[in-house]
Amino acid sequence: MSNRMIRFDYGYVSSTEQAIIEKLSREEKRMHAIIYTKQNCAKCRMTANLLSRAMPVQTIMADERDYARFRKQGYQSMPVVTVYKSDGTHDTWSDMRVDKIKQYTKGDALG
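Below the sequence we write its predicted structure tokens.
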């Protein structure tokens, strides 16, 4: 790559810096999931594993405050999954929902 500087509204950047900025910009627009799990939960592990084939996944071990919050929201089983979509919307569900997982993995991960 050359060290030629490129002018943008916010100033001059090198082509290397521009490539990094473009990559970060694309990543911010990708779908990603946050999955609340509980210890020794096979459905939690399977959900995280399958969704991670289609998007970045962050798992969080739920604590008592999380369980109380989920009960108030009507969720009765783990995991609790939120998929943040690139258009700014999100989809949330609880339990291992094969139909939802297939929606995001195009069925590839579940054969």
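Residues 107-111 have pLDDT under 50 and may be disordered.
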